[in-house]
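COMPLEX REQUEST
Ligand: NAP
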Amino acid sequence: MRHFAIVGSGPAGFYTAEALAKAYGDAARIDIIDKLPVPYGLIRFGVAPDHQSIKAVSKRYDKVVEESGVRFVGNVAVGDGVTIAELGELYDAVILATGAPNDRRLGIAGEDLRGVVGSAAFVGWYNGHPDFADLDPPLDAEHAVVIGAGNVALDVARILSKTRAEFAGSDIVGHALDALERSAIRTITILVRRGPHQIAMTPKELGELAHLEAAAPVVDPADFPPVEADSALEDRGLAKSVGLLREFVRLEAGARPKRIVFDFFARPVALEGEDRVEQVVVERTRLEEGRAVGTGEQYRLPAGLVVSCIGYQTPMIPGVPYDHANGRFLNDQGRIGDGLYCVGWARRGPTGTIGTNRPDGYEVAEQVAAALPPGSDGDKPGGEGLDRLLCERGVMATSYADWRKIEAAESAAARPGAPREKFVRRDQWMQAIRG
Ligand code: NAP
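STATUS: Structure written out below.
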């Protein structure tokens, strides 16, 4: 028998468990450990609440843990409740699938002013992450600025623009829904340090901006070359998104009161305000060999809320070598050291779609299987040893059965038409488990 611990229950963790379960069958026991009492990581806390079809992938993950030999062990913080060295003693291999839930910093003056938040915090707030339930972002000013040109910037701009009715069928948490309904924000400027040809936004997500009930995208035609000279329109990867941006130029805003303004070739250089952010100092840029360089021309944008969506990093774990330049674990194709691996964003950095984690998890599972061929035996205690250790330390781990009770209680508490009302505090989860 072999014993494996996967740390993190997001997509990378579940795909790795699925691959190991397939490779080993009955000859392995797999524990998926998470610091939160509930599973799914990015699916529950990252994917936008109005993208329910993407969240439906958790049904596939349910099947993995419903297989015999795979357990969910929630409410256990690795690096705190149990160390990596201890997991190494208990399991034949440990696979870190801890994602990249920490915000990268902008590194500019004024970043710590009230009203300046990273996307991990802001997304965590509207998605019911317990660490950010009390964020209370200021939505009382007319202008907000979103920094970055990726899909997260789009998620944030869209969520800030939607009406209450547009959230029907979503699982946005009640505290965010109520606050957003009262929001005074009318203009959301997306600051993009390079041009429309360099965006990381994907067409499906970009296209949603054209169909919002109360908001319209605004794009300056001066940011594009003439159509006949626009090589991006011939590029398979870019044609759709650049085409959409060009269509936004012609879009009639009509009576829609809110604007999502794309400010290209614009980078933030400072955030200013007395006790909270009031404006963003922006520098015009130009492209030099694909990089944004400042032109020295500056202007100020009013902003009562600034959300930086410039990427994430993996939290460090004591005893695990770290790649500071890229904000992930130091690894060679997923291998960190003897019996220690990483997958997903903890391995590659925060790029790709949810599906990208599938081949990633399978590849690392293959490496594990090559090092410990299925059928070979070990003498590690596995989950039983972990349970003993947690019991000694008074850590109350949650199981998949506990999660199902939480899920049932969250469904029962849902607004009409919503799939669930997420609980955001540990005591609510624990109460649901106790019934
Ligand atoms: P991303 O796609 O890497 O975009 C980050 C953006 O931040 C880039 O536009 C980058 O510009 C900009 N940026 C970085 N540092 C900056 C700075 N100091 N100042 C100004 N701008 C800066 O990251 P993401 O949006 O966080 O998304 C992470 C991953 O999740 C992506 O693969 C994304 O596609 C995926 N995702 C998918 C969905 C979906 O499919 N619905 C939703 C959300 C996220 P440069 O290009 O100039 O560096």
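REMARKS: Residues 106, 147-153, 155, 193-194, 198, 200, 202, 205, 267, 292, 309-311, 350-353 surround NAP (CB under 6 Å). Residues 357-371 form the longest helix (15 residues).
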